[in-house]
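pasting input
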Amino acid sequence: MEPQRRSRRVYLALALLVLVPAALEVGARVVDRVRGSPWDGERSRASVAAAHKGLMAAAWPEGRTDRTDVLLQPFTGWQPSQIQARIADDLDEYRMPESIPVFDVCLLGGSGAAALASEGGAGLVGALARDPRLAGREIRLHAYGIEGTKQPQAERLLAYLLSLGHRPDAVIEFDGLDEASMGWSNALAGVSPLYPSAEIWGNLTEGLRFDWEVVELLHELREAQFSALELAQLHMRLDLHRSCFLDHAARLLLDRRLGRIEDVEAKIGSYAATRSLEAELAGPRTSTEPADVARVIVSSWEEASIDMHAMCERRGIAYLQVLEPAGPGADAGVDRVHPGLREAGRRLAERGIAFLDGAAVLGDRPEELFDGAGRLGDRGLEILAESAARALPVR
Amino acid sequence: MGKRARVALRIVLVLVASAALLEIGARLLERFRGRSFDSEALRTEIVTHLGAVSPRAFIRGGHQDMTRAATAPDSVILSPYTAWEDMGLQAKIASDHEYYRRPESEEVYDICVLGGSVANGFGKLGAGPLLEKLRQDPSFTGRGLRLHNYGVAGFKQMQQVMLLGYLFDWGHRPDAVIEIDGFNESAIGAGNAQLGVHPAYPSISHWARAAYGIKTDFELVRLLHGVRVKQDRATAFGAWLLDSGLWRSAFLGQVGKTILVRLRGAYIEQFFAYQRYTADHPTDVGSKGPRFASDDESVSAAVVTAWEESSISMDSMCAARGITYLHVLQPALHDPGSKPLTAKEIETGGAGPTWIEGIHRTYPLLREAGGRLSERGVAFLDATGVFRDHPEDVYADACHFEEHGNAIFAAAIGPALVAAARK
């Protein structure tokens, strides 16, 4: 090749090297302007910096359970964090000599018991204070009703408290609706009706619980995050925001990589929501026939009460089982199971266990004692609290 | 031939000769070590190393838990009422739930054994001698006897009282309940306290192990990502090594294997880092339990209170159903004066100082509390001295007995159960 011709080709190549990027740059800017959004390098830089910051923070995919207010508990499944502190405080109180003349009442159960303590607690304490059997003793109410719990969680909590050294003078177990409702919905969800509420226990233990598939998905997520992070860092390091074309090209790639992260996050969410139940969430597998489910809920409720009574009786603690009444609007589980609980309550009474049927107490009182969900309202709870005080087998 | 070509040829010759020498040298070395090179054996070794690069077996949850329930029923999972349980326990509870509903169960004298791993071992090795002993008693003549082993490794009070309540909730109706405990309460209770966990709480390490992975923080993801990356490297190299056929060479096969072992080592190191992280963050899964006084005396008092009160609860729950209850305080190798130890027992019976101190401090108090239980009408057997006249090997480690030990143990429990049943 002649030297002159070779030089021309070199010049041409050099010119192309300059002109093509320049044309791409100009073209990109023109396209942006035609589209009505003139290119703004600083804005793009800020956007990439924000993406970079987000990737550095490595946020969790949506759906992670926040459990700051609830702790796993080895014997009751879970408990609100403030209950744990109260258990230690109460133990200290029971050990003080000043506690001896005080009449301590431990109120156990689920949301009904929590409502009873809140709305009828004063009435209960007042009624007991007026009770001649207690001869003016100071009454102290220990409210251990925990919303969202059901039998046998209350039974386990009582065993736990007694084993730690709690010594109440009386125990009132107020329950029935949560057992029927949650036990039934547990069974519908494929979870043992004796297990804690599937919804709560599942949230505590499932979420992003690691199994191998979750590890694989999280690995994929991490890879996607790394890949996007590298590109964002490259964009910032090379100041690509100074060129409209290069900025667009890098942003296109970055968007794709960020999109991949979103895809993996969606896969994780979908997997966590649809994967099959783990053994620890489901509990023992028994018959799922409705009649069997109802039988198991009723019998376990009855057995739990027998245990609670036995533990109290042995220690000279008065025990009263109160069955919450079901009002209009209760759910299917309550409709199906509650009549069986009333029958079981009568059997408990025949065994010598103090039993108060809330429905019998309210008799034919008007329906306004209940809220729309079949639960007792404030006035109903007050009435029941005072009845419970009278029914307590104080020695 | 040009100069360059000659140089190239020499280099090739040197490389080939070196490779041949290395190969011959490697084979001679093998022979010198007393074994001849076996390429198939090397291949098998590589495959074995490769097969070990999988953490799947150690990460719980999901579908593999369901599979594991059948293949490894002693794997542990989280339980809402006893902190953790064996995978097989759920199936056993459900199966016994059905059994107790059948009329045939009423013909059988059912014995439920509760406790930790010693109770579990007794349920396996001591069941025969115990049932044999009972059959000799006229009150059991002609009656079927069945032992339901609900001992779970690592369990300590209050787990047994919770499990018993749970079994009753499920409608289980044994004729007798034997609670075997003492060691875990004393040793693990002290171990818990040292970690800042309430001594009456279940073994925090067991609980954390059952629950690990539940607290999914980003550090854990980073560690698992590292595990996965190192696993990928090792498996990719191992697969290439096998495909390349280099395992047929004594030298290159060994070099490849060495690299694979290193990659596997890196993977294991990362996996240990993951395990350490989960072990070091046990409280993330729940809590350390209620606050407690951590001086030795208070810790022992908390252990004894939980043990004694749980037994009273179990006794009362059984009494409410007409079930015989027997509480057995098990012997422990480190309980001073309880047995003349053999050289083998001394060698295999080691335990951490916290556990040993826990036994020393708490066992005398448990014996005293056992006396109080008896006074309160609880059938209590202090079996801590059953090996006192047995200078032979009995213990397999600091607390578990071998078959012979279980037979001796059963011989003590049998009459105590008969006496309790007659009460």
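fyi The CA atoms of residues 27 and 127 of chain B lie 56 Å apart.
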